[in-house]
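3.2 Worked example (two chains)
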Amino acid sequence: MRSHHIQFNKSILDNDFYKFTMQQAVVRLFPSAMARYSFINRGKHQFPDGFGEALQLRIRDMELLQLSIGEKQFLRENCPYLDPLYLDFLSGYRYDANEVTIKQHGADLDIKIEGHWYRSILWEVPVMALICELYYEMTNGQRISDELLISQSAAKAKQFSTLGVNVAEFGTRRRHSYEVQKLVIDTFSREGGKMFVGTSNVHLAMLHQTRPIGTHAHEWFMYHAAVYGFPQANVSALQHWVDVFRGDLGIALSDTYTTDVFLTHFDKMFSKLFDGVRQDSGNPIEFADKIIAHYNKLGIDPLSKTIIFSDGLDYEKVARITEYCRGKIGFSFGIGTNLSNDVGLNPMNIVVKMTETRQTNGRWTSVVKLSDSPEKNTGEPAMIEAAKTILSIMD
């Protein structure tokens, strides 16, 4: 087992940026909220004997991570919307491995995360990254060479640059490994020119002196649905985001309860205040049509707004979206697995999602996500059906 006990984490910032922005909002607005998360093995991957034990060791290693003086300075200088109180909080934050429970039953893996939301919110992305890296190690997956990876990444950077689009790297959660993700960002930083606008990984953004990119995730809206009800979820989540960030971090995630429902709540005030929206499920062309029509109906020039496309992108899909959207609306791309895990092995299809939340001394309440791609829905079936009924969502 010791051969698999190699601490991979380089930094507490080796995580997606939206985890830290949401953490600031939770610390400020919901410090007593509790949260539970579960691992979902969408790809039905079979885990080798001893995997759960080896993963637990790496989870325990994460307790050693803490924000350095240099990292705090990077956040202070580059992310002025992260307030001093939050940065002081993050300086004192330590992972607690007791919040993560791992059980292995044969080839199946069961992972639960539970704790105060302001603490447990940081686990999702590094746990997924650890699972991926350890899986490839323990199954002896042989990736392509560094030389081929660099050459392949340089070719992709040239393609995107020729296409004339903005691309960010969003691949932390399902990367092959830290080393692969770093090599890809190294290459894109060097070869991509102005096309490469940043990465969701805060640690790697700091190393490459590029922008950390992200706003919020589905769990932000899922929590609000549990507390304020499904009809008020989008409005209360957007309003609270504005209360904390006052116009910064203005890309709204639209598909937690389907984009059609979201747009009924994304009124003229929110549509003007937010810089744009992120597309994370469904048909990207149909999504673009809906967003363009929505802005036009409100008398807002779509070219003054941006869609961030981030769902399962490769060059062909990016080129198709670009051809359709150019001249109609602003757009940019966040590309994940196709950059951070295109190494000749099958990428893992896994997620970690919030499943329940609880207020102080209250009962646990199940949370759900209703995606524009129904196969991405998460939550208890009865609660999913209740949400569909309340929101008048037809299958």
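3.2.1 Second chain
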Amino acid sequence: MLLKENMAMRTLFDFSPLHRSSIGFDRVFDLLESAARTQQTDNYPPFDSIKLGDDSYRITMAVAGFTQDELTISAQGNLLLVSGEHKVEPEGEFLHRGIASRAFNRRFELAEHIYVTGARLANGLLSIDLKREVPEAMKPRRISINGDEGIASTVKQIHTEAA
């Protein structure tokens, strides 16, 4: 029984060994701890995340019954927010309501340098295309190495008397 209580209370990972050998990954560790703390129970609307290539991705969401005017996509920093809300209730009295039509907010944490390139709504599916665009300054580059003469030529001699 004690073991079960300890296991249930432990929701955070210990990243201290990784902090000793890595610099600048604080955001990644925070994301992992946040994901461990919050368990997403609502899976509405359902979605697929697809890797199309080395630097391109697509999120496809099932948003049957929503029109283009009832959906909103916004990106701020590394957060993509997709929301939907019906503006007009259908006419008549429902005898059975099997098509989900409730409002939703779906959040996606994006990695660095991932941007939305487009979105389209067709056949009840909302597709959002994403692309990783690494700035030129962040791409790997080769650093040339100068020989000894390169260093010696930049050093100025101040005093030339022999000791």
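3.3 Remarks
Residues 1 and 7 are 10 Å apart (CA to CA).
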